Amino acid sequence: MMHASDQDLMTVIRSTLPGMTPKMRATGEMCLVKTEQFIRNTSREICAELGTSEPTLIRFCRQFGYSGLSDFRIDLALSLAHQPRGHGFVEPLAGDRRRANLAAKRRIAEHAVTLLGSDDTLLIDNGSTAEFFASALPEEPKRTIMTNGLVVAQNALVRGAHDVLLTGGRIRPRALSLTGRQVENTLEGMRFDTFIMGVGTVEPELGFSTFREDEAHGTRTMVAAAARVIVLADHTKFRKSALHKICGLEDIDILVTDLPPSSPILLAIRERGVQVETVSPEDRPSDPR
Q1: CA 149 to each of CA 55, 88, 160, 165, 216: distance values in angstroms, whole numbers, following the listed order
Q2: How does DSSP classify residue 68?
């Protein structure tokens, strides 16, 4: 099965159109012509526009090596961002980012908890894997936790064992995260044992990036506020870089992922001095590269 992670997805769709069935071709044409609509609309709205069914829509995404609509649309947004000037950029929906590869994200988060040791001050990023991480924290030892994620804070509070603080800042309603200068102001002069970081994309040469400039700036501030940085990145994050760089590999200590231990990507990352920890969820696909 083809996977477009190494290639530009819109280019791959364009080259594949002539050999598609009429329904598949109509879906591909919508991806290319009405890209923003395809990224932002619900699956039901897309199917109504195309006059097709949701199973057909999923089959279209799987034809390109994706498990479903969510991870396909994340790559489609990245592909749009890398088109020639004039095409613009559409941020992937927070819902798509949350739904992609949930089983692996949970396993990654649970494994990351085992790496904390005696650390008692944690800085935790926003995002679905970070939310699983906060839920997996045991009651003991009691820790002081600061986060820019509203759901992360809620999950960390469930057992009533930890002291939980928010960075402050402007709320991004769809992402349920905090952003803006207040994040930087709050973290000034603070030092945490470990920062648990989420990312939009990972590339061995370019490092870690995300989809929004304000998010990248806030995350860089969080990296600087911790003695150690652990990155949580499932296999869907190893793709073309997003628009805004967070940091390079030299700025992080540990990467936790569900890519196979023998993956050439992980070999390149290890060679840069990063400790790599892998998990093996049952539904992990073959190495996308």
Answers
A1: 33, 27, 17, 10, 14
A2: S
- Per the CB < 8 A criterion, the answer to whether 234 and 257 are in contact is yes
The conformation of residue 50, written as its DSSP 8-state character, comes to H
Rg (CA), the chain: 19
> Which residue type, as a one-letter code, is found at position 187?
L
Classify the C-alpha dihedral 76-81-83-85 as positive or negative: positive
Nearest to 183 by CA among 128, 231, 146, 157: 146
* 10-44 tens-digit pLDDT: 999 999 999 999 999 999 999 999 998 998 898 99
Q: What is the DSSP string of 148-216?
A: SBHHHHHHHHTTS-SEEEE---EEETTTTEEESHHHHHHHTT--EEEEEEE-SEEETTTEEEES-HHHH
For the cut 70, the answer to whether the pLDDT of residue 99 exceeds it is: no
Q: How far apart are CA 64 and CA 13, in angstroms?
A: 8
pTM tops 0.85, yes or no: no
DSSP reduced 3-state for 29: helix
- Helix ranges (H only) for 41-127 are 43-50, 54-63, 69-81, 94-99, 102-113
Report helix angle 43-50 to 54-63, nearest 10.
Answer: 100
Q: How many CB atoms lie within 10 A of CB 31?
A: 26
CA–centroid distance for 46 within its chain:
24
Using CA atoms, how far apart are residues 125 and 109, in angstroms rounded to an integer? 12
Which residues pair with residue 1 across a beta bridge?
A: none
Secondary structure class of 232 (helix, strand, coil): strand
